[in-house]
Amino acid sequence: MRIARFSIDGNVAFGAVEGEGPDGLVLDIIKGIPFADFELSGTKVPVSKVRLLPPVLPNKVVAFGRNYAEHAAELGHAIVDDQGRPDAPFAFFKPSTSVIGPGDPIAYPSFSNELHHEAELAVVIGRMCREVPRERVKDVILGYTCANDVTARDVQKREKQWARAKGFDSSCPLGPWVETDLDPSDLTIQCTVNGEQRQLGRTSQMIHSIEDLIVNITEAMTLLPGDVVLTGTPAGVGPLNVGDEVAVTIQGIGTLTNKVIKRD
């Protein structure tokens, strides 16, 4: 099931996305919320008549870096320790205020001159959980969506902490919806800028699997329904400029598109 969050006539609701193609999509409005038992109302509205919002409003976004070998190499990062073993997952946070939805503008931060796109598969948590054993990881996942871990690369290089470089307002586009019925182990991830392909990879290239990442972070903290885990980006990250349209497409989910604007 594809679950979208949307607004219409000043009201916000969740709906199950039905149909195919930009003109054939409709939303069957959900009674309740997708993090508990819910029913479809049977009341349907065309997607073209609503504004799609971020599919969830996370309490926190936990992001993992250097999880694709070629991307780590292009930034000059080692991915193995002194004994040749893969490094442990490398986590950081993006605040809830960084989250925007499909079609929302990415505001180019005034403190950066080198903004980069990073297309990623995002995991949406469906229930409160901590210390999740590997065999139970699937039980705590609601589904998957597209993400863009927009990064002020010059600031990331200059500052020891990544809070500003990756946590500024509008740096975490999510959407267009959550796909609940999906095998995430070998999906194509693509990023285009103004229609030109920049990134193309597969989730099977991850160094640490989704199970690895969920086990790792829930050893340390509780994840809440609606929290989001970003799983890393494949190689090909590159610059974004004011006026650019950046699109992240993931097989089996859809396309997340945002335009870069000058920050007011």
From TrEMBL:
GO molecular function terms attached to this record: acetylpyruvate hydrolase activity; isomerase activity; metal ion binding
Pfam families linked: FAA_hydrolase (PF01557), Rv2993c-like_N (PF10370)
GO biological process: carboxylic acid metabolic process
Coiled-coil stretches noted in the UniProt entry, renumbered to this chain: none
Domain Fumarylacetoacetase-like C-terminal: 60-260
Domain Rv2993c-like N-terminal: 1-55
Segments traversing the membrane: none
Protein name (record): 2-hydroxyhepta-2,4-diene-1,7-dioate isomerase
